[in-house]
């Protein structure tokens, strides 16, 4: 059922997005790989996926903080591959600092990349999905789309925003064969959180393993991070027929973080 569908996964050059790309490619889903990577590295990655999985692939390096680059990417994909059936808004960045000192440029970048880019990609991919009466929109939010934490004003605002945006898209398309859901992970082992671990290690003069344990257990009851492919498998499930009534949801995968 999913073979030969076209998926765009933003931020699929690293972490959760890259793992999700492997999970989806195994099902024969054609992929637009995307992220901040040189054109030649991106093309090598896309060719590797095409060779390994026998799927059509494309790489695009659009900077998601620029709406014009997003538009150019979606147009290029439509022209070269056909429309996007599965949209995974995954790319994201982080900056931690108290709100009174939070740099304005970091605020603007986090809102643009973690939230507004999803509005643009959704707006531009919906017409194709509506025409086909089939589509899947999966937004990678965070537990921080459901609860707050200190020093993460922009990230928490953007992630709450994307949970809200997802609900509206689900409501507006409830009878169009399109589902829209947010996934809300707790800690996941990726480069995104390295700086937070390094900061704890430096502040407490402890090694990286101890710092990682402190970071996880400060909020998350399960003292282990989720693996990137666990998120990828949930994304894949949301694409199946069995998940066609799951829409408008914000699904935690968070080691009981938000159960408290
Ligand atoms: P990562 O740093 O490994 O990957 C981020 C991806 O986004 C990369 O491919 C990068 O190139 C891309 N990206 C960053 N800025 C971009 C820009 N301006 N334009 C285009 N692409 C850009 O991070 P990750 O941990 O895999 O995060 C993926 C998503 O999961 C993010 O939305 C993040 O907020 C969310 N998340 C992560 C965790 C975690 O613990 N790692 C927890 C909850 C939610």
TrEMBL record:
Keywords, comma-separated and alphabetical: Oxidoreductase
GTP-binding recorded as keyword: no
Top EC group: oxidoreductase
Single Gene Ontology MF annotation: 3-hydroxybutyrate dehydrogenase activity
Origin: domain of life: Bacteria
Keyword GTP-binding recorded: no
Pfam families noted in UniProt: adh_short
Family in the record: Belongs to the short-chain dehydrogenases/reductases (SDR) family.
NCBIfam families the record matches: PHB_DH (TIGR01963), PRK12429.1 (NF009093)
Protein name: 3-hydroxybutyrate dehydrogenase
Annotated organism of origin: Psychrosphaera aquimarina
